[in-house]
Design goal:
124 residues, mainly alpha, Globin-like, 7 helices, globular, binds protoporphyrin IX containing FE
C-alpha cells in the first residue's frame, strides 16, 4: 500500500474544505484583497483554490481534470500582486492555517509551502 499522503495525514477533504472556507471568508472582508477578486465568483474561487491544494498535497486530481495544468504564475498575471497584496494574502492564510490546529510539524510543512508560493506569485 502506498505511504499516506500529507493530504490524508492532516484529515483529507474536510481539512482542506475548512482551510479554504476560513481563508475566503476573511479575504472577502479584506480591504486590500477584496477588490482584486472577480465579483460574484467567491464560491467558484473557493472551489479552485481548494481543488488545487487538495491535488498538490496528494488528494484527488479534480483540479487538473477541470482546469488543466495549474500554471499559477500565468493565471495570476492579470492581478497586480505587490508586497502589500502578498502579505495580506499570507496574513489571511496564516489565520486560516491556525484554525486547523495541526501538529507543529504539519503546520510547518504547510506554511513553508504557502509562504514560498505566495512569494513566487508576486508580480509587481
Ligand atoms: C486564483 C489572488 C496567491 C492559488 C486567484 C485569483 C486571485 C488571486 C484574485 C482569481 C480568483 C479566481 O478566479 O479563482 C492571489 C493573491 C495572492 C495569491 C493576491 C498573493 C500572493 C496564491 C497562492 C496560491 C494561489 C500562493 C497557491 C498556493 C490560486 C489558484 C487560483 C487562484 C489555484 C485559481 C486558478 C484557476 O484555476 O483559475 N488568486 N493569489 N494563489 N489562486 Fe491566487
Amino acid at each position: 500500500t502506498p505511504a499516506a499522503t500529507f493530504y490524508d495525514e492532516v484529515g483529507g477533504a474536510e481539512t482542506f474544505r475548512r482551510l479554504v472556507a476560513h481563508f475566503y471568508a476573511s479575504v472577502r472582508q479584506d480591504p486590500v484583497l477584496e477588490p482584486l477578486y472577480p465579483p460574484d465568483e467567491w464560491e467558484a474561487a473557493e472551489e479552485r483554490l481548494r481543488g488545487f491544494l487538495v491535488q498538490y498535497w496528494g488528494g484527488p486530481r479534480t483540479y487538473s481534470e477541470q482546469r488543466g495544468h495549474p500554471r499559477l504564475r500565468m493565471r495570476h498575471a492579470p492581478f497586480a500582486i505587490g508586497p502589500a497584496e502578498r502579505d495580506a494574502w499570507l496574513a489571511n492564510m496564516r489565520a486560516a492555517v491556525d484554525s486547523l490546529q495541526l501538529t507543529p510539524a504539519q503546520d510547518r510543512t504547510l506554511w513553508d509551502y504557502l509562504r514560498m508560493a505566495a512569494h513566487s506569485m508576486q508580480n509587481r
